[in-house]
Specification:
The structure is a single chain. This protein is an alpha/beta fold. The protein has one domain (about 5-290): Rossmann fold (3-Layer(aba) Sandwich), CATH 3.40.50.1820. The chain contains eleven helices and ten strands. The strands form two sheets. The chain has an eight-stranded mixed beta sheet with strand order 2-3-5-4-7-8-9-10, with helices on both faces. A two-stranded antiparallel ribbon has the order 1-6. α2 crosses α3, α3 (about 115-125) crosses α8 and α5 (about 170-175) crosses α6.
Length: about 290
Amino acid sequence: MEAYRTPDERFDGLPGYAFSPRYLDYDGLRLHYLDEGEGPPVLLLHGEPTWAYLYRKVIPELTPTCRAVAPDYLGFGRSDKPLRLEDYTYDLHVDTIRRLVAELDLRELTIVVQDWGGPIGLRLAVEQPERVARLVIMNTGVGGGRPPSEEWLRFRAFVRRVGTELVPGRLIRISCVQPFADEVEEAYNAPFPVPESKAGFLAFPELVPTEPEHPNTEPLLRVRAALEHWEKPVLVLFSDSDSIFPPQVAERIADLIPGALEPEIVAGAGHFLQEDRGPEIGARIARFVAA
């Protein structure tokens, strides 16, 4: 699989991101992850078009008592980036994270998901429940075979129209409620300096099953069906200002999963609540793990 590797110097001096890179070999491709702290492991899964940088404010709140593991999917962050859109599949992303969890032998695991982290991490959880102690579900959907929302369909149309001209940092900035510096926007852009580095986030909207015959409809419906019997603790933590996954989605997820606590809504946060309210999110997850 031919891939682009973002030069390491692109990641030098990023604001708030003084973490050491670690790598897993995945069939000749380099998969990057962070591994910070000691204690019960917490797997932090990002969405689109973000990468482990999204969790830079969350990790310091976890590491006094937990081990924080934050990977970059193939196509994102410091991980290698296959060049063709068709190289990216739902199965590929799940398998890379499954391989990482096995390589690190993570057990009694807390899986934290947001955006595309939901389909990936929740599938991992229901397929390997013996490794998982609890879930944290943030601003994502649990379903398949229909569009998440009209707003999401507009987002997919935008990505199709803009293509490789899409600027990830700018998209993240307009999706946040709290202001952030230009240097932070550029940090989100750091992994994607050239058009051939962008196939991963351009592929993700096409992997969302918006009709019954989509190849990902069946596996996602299996995940949903398994979650209907999930009784281990689940923290449902959504923001108050996400037009794609509003608080009503949090209520539906909590109603679906037997182990879910009452949904908690974070004030003053948009779709990327880790960016808007990172320390608050991190502290809440740490308390959840301790409890």
